[in-house]
Structure formats: structure tokens, C-alpha cells
Amino acid sequence: MLKTVLTAFGLVFLAELGDKTQLATMLLTAQSRSPVAVFIGAATALVVSSVLGVIVGGLVMRVVPTRYIQMVAGAAFIVIGGLLLAGKT
Questions:
Q1: How many CB atoms neighbour CB 38 within 10 A?
Q2: Considering only CA atoms, which of 8, 80, 3 is closest in space to residue 72?
Q3: pLDDT beyond 90 at 52
Q4: Residue 71: HSE in the Cβ half-sphere, 13 Å Cα cutoff
Q5: Between 83 and which of 45, 53, 59, 88 could a Cys-Cys bridge form, CB atoms 3.0 to 4.6 Å apart?
Q6: In what helix (H) or strand (E) does residue 65 lie, and over which residues does it extend?
Q7: Which one, of 77, 76, 26, 22, lies nearest residue 46 by Cα?
Q8: How far apart are CA 84 and CA 65, in angstroms?
């Protein structure tokens, strides 16, 4: 279980670094001058979106074999990477 926790933490942490969410959070903090309030709101949003991901992932896993989920996720990451490299996003 610890390995799964650390893997999830690492993936989410790296995925969130420098993305639009982090930039929006920095902007909100600068505008509101209330870092605690922004932290509470941003942390709550991340928790809620993660809960939704876990719930939906659990439901999908019951219907779709893990192998297919991994293949679709891998293909999606490749497509997104290609779009990023091509400057389409």
C-alpha cells in the first residue's frame, strides 16, 4: 500500500507542477493577499477532483479490464504529448 501511496503522490505532484492550476493559485494568492484562504480552496478542489477520479476509476475498473484502461491511458498520453510537441495546445 505504501508503494501505491508514494506512486500516486509522485505522479500527481509532478503533474501539478507548473500547470495552469498552480499558476492560477499563484495569481489568486497575489490578488487576494490571503494565502490561507487560497490554500484551503485549492486544496479542497484537488481533494474533491481526486475523490471523483478514484470513484470513477473504481467504477470503470469493474466494467473494463485493467489492460484496456492502461492502453487507452497510454495512447491518450502519447496523443497529448504529440499535440504539445506540435504546438497545438
A1: 19
A2: 80
A3: yes
A4: 5
A5: 88
A6: none
A7: 22
A8: 29
Rounded CA-CA distance 64/56 in Å is 12
Q: Locate cell 509522485: which residue?
A: 10
Rounded CA-CA distance 31/50 in Å is 26
The pTM of this model reads: 0.64
Cβ atoms of 29 and 35 closer than 8 Å: yes
- Cell 501511496 belongs to which residue? 5
Asked whether residue 79 carries a pLDDT value surpassing 90, the answer given is yes
Beta strands in 1-89 (DSSP E): none
- 72 pLDDT band (50/70/90 cuts)? very high
Structural domain spans, the chain: 2-64
SS3 assignment, position 9: helix
